[in-house]
Every structure is written in structure tokens, then in C-alpha cells.
Amino acid sequence: MIELSLLKLFMQRQNLESYKGLLNPKTLSRQSIQILKDLSVYFDTHPDSLSVDIQLFSVFFFNVRNPYLDDKTVTEYKEIFKLLGELDSKESIETLIKGFKQQNLYEDLKRSIDNNQELDELLSKIEQFNQENNKESLDNVFVDMDIEEAAEFVDRSKGLKWRCKALQDYFEGGVIKSDFIIIAGGIGSGKSSFVASELSFMGEQLKDGEYILWLSNEGSYKTALTRLYSAALNSSWKQIKQYMPSAKEKYLKLMNGDRNRIRIVDIQGWSAKQIENVIKKRTPVLTVIDLVDNIEGFDKYSTKENSFEKYGKLYQWCREVATKYCPVLGVSQFSIEGQDAMYPKMTSLRGSKIDKAGACTALLTIGSVAGDNTTRYLGMPKSKLRADINDWRATVVFDAERCRYI
Q1: Which of 391, 386, 326, 328 lies closest to 359, judged by CA?
Q2: Which of 84, 222, 319, 381 to pair with 182, CA 20 to 30 A apart?
Q3: This prediction's pTM
Q4: Angle at 260 (CA atoms; ends 255, 264), nearest 5 degrees
Q5: Residue 405's beta-bridge partner residues?
């Protein structure tokens, strides 16, 4: 995804001329290097062109620059050009440009220091750079109020679909960017199994380099991985162990050829800053945080009386991550009043009354009753998704052995 954004960036003549010299070829794929070379030639032979039309460039690439490629290589490049044509990379390109500008500044400062330039001149360059950056950030505050662009953004038909049909119907589609959905349940209610059930289905919808990030502080990732395989294959762990080679092959096929389609990472002791840094740099299409409450860095907001402000800040941070990078599913727990209840209230969330729920797009509760491990009660006591439905509820079958919600 990063290299695609890079190629998209250099389809503008000004960007190619300004920043190409800052690239390290060792970090680029063979295909990217070839395309960049041919972009330079394209602009040299089309002096009036300020940007590249992907369709025209592909004709130039295949017919003029590389007419003797074998069929396999042609197919590879055609797929790259197809992805470039579909790519909406405005945010990624802005980040790349900012990085290149900073790199330009560092190189300029290094040359100035080598030439024994006065300190005042160095500080002046830094001040000028900061002023220009601040101006750009202020310019981006005001955007065009385009209702068609907004309609495209909130279109859930292109989001990640839920396995559980009741949820798919309620959402009228899938999970999209800016969604922060809290998944809350009591101890032993099957929260991690629910995550495995849904992620294993969402993983089937991904392609190319897309992946889902499951951040877990609930023990080793290997335990979660066994649940993920059970949910994906709709099989008990006993069956999977018995037929391991075929299970691995089937899982790989379901994940469209990538067994790392869903990456589970242990984050015990991680801070919010560390987590956001991973999400920002590794660009998942969806992030799950299991459990949210165990994230470090917000204790300063706690008091002896309560921790409401701490959790309010923590869950608001989750919402900001969902808005900036990708949708977030945050797993949370109920306090004692939410145990052994079909439809716990949102005030039953541990350590908070309404602060946690106030930050989310929707609060999905998983209710359970002691003595019944085959039935779960899904509820939505708080939601910004459906004005026509208040306090949505659904009864589902829970197959604990296969980690499926049906």
C-alpha cells in the first residue's frame, strides 16, 4: 500500500522532480523501480504534461518502454496499474510529502553545518520550515462541503461484512472507517470467540496486501490463533489437530493465499502511543484491541474516587484512531452488575458509567445466562447507526467449540 501511494505521488511532475532523489532504491520493489524509471522518461518525452493519466501511461509503459515482457510479468504490472487507478491515497500522499519535506530540510541543514553556517541562519531555516508547515495544516482545516463525497464515505455496502447475519442486517452493510465499536461482555461470555468468529469471516473479504490487526493483552497470541482457525474452518480444535495439513491448506485458501491475513500481536504493557505508532505505520484495514482497558498511558486521569475520566480519555483516543486510520473494535468487560444478564445496560461497563459508551459509534453487548453456554444475547443499548431502531436486540446460537456466533 505504501509503494502504491508512492507511485501515485510521483505521477505528478513536480513531486517526481522534487523528491525522486531522496528515494533509497534498496527499499523499493523491482516493479516500483521500473515504473519510476519509465515515469521519468514519460515526463521527459511529454514536456507539457504536469501529471500522468494511468491509462495513457500503461500504453506507454507496455508498448514503448517494455514491449518484450513475458505474459506473467505483464499480468503483474497490469494488476499494479489497476490498483493505482482505484487507489484513494490522499492521506498517504500528504504523509509522504511531509516526510520528503522534512528529509529535504535535514539534508539542507547537514550541508549548512558542513559549510560552517552561522547558528542564526540554521534557526532561520527551521523557523521558515515550521511556518510553511503550519500554514499548510491550517489550509487543510477547511474542506469543501461535498455531500456526494460524504455519501460515499458513509456507504456501508463497501465495508467489512459481519459473519453474524443479525449484525449485518442491523448495520445495513459492514464496518467502515471512523467506526469505533465497543464489544462488551461478562467474564466467560465468549468475547474473544466472538472476535474470532467475525474476523475469520472479514479476513476472507481481503485481498492483495490488506490485513486485519488483532492486538491482544489477554495472553499469548497462539491461544487466539487456535480460536481463529476453529472459527474460520467451522471445526473444533480437536478436529483441526487431527487433520492439520489439510486444515492449514484450507485456511490459506480462505484467506486468499495469505496466512497472515489476520495478524495477532501480544501487547501486554503497551501504551497508547506504541499502539498508534504500529497502526499508523503498518496500515491495517481494521484494528481490534482486546482488552481496551489494559492499555497504558491514561492513569494520570484517575482519582482516588473514580476512574471515569481515565476511561473517558482512553475510549476517546480509540475513537480518534478509528477516525484517522481505520475502524476499531474495542473489547471491554462488564462490572459485576453486567454478569448473568441477557441485556446489560451501558452503565454496566467496568469502571465507567457513560464515559466509555459516550466515545463509541456503537456499543455491542454480549449477554449470557449462567448454565446456558449455547445461547448469547446481543444488544445495542447505544448506537449512532440507526435512528429508526432503539435498543436493538437479537438472540443467537453460540458454538463455543467452533468459536462461531450464528
Answers
A1: 328
A2: 222
A3: 0.68
A4: 120
A5: 398
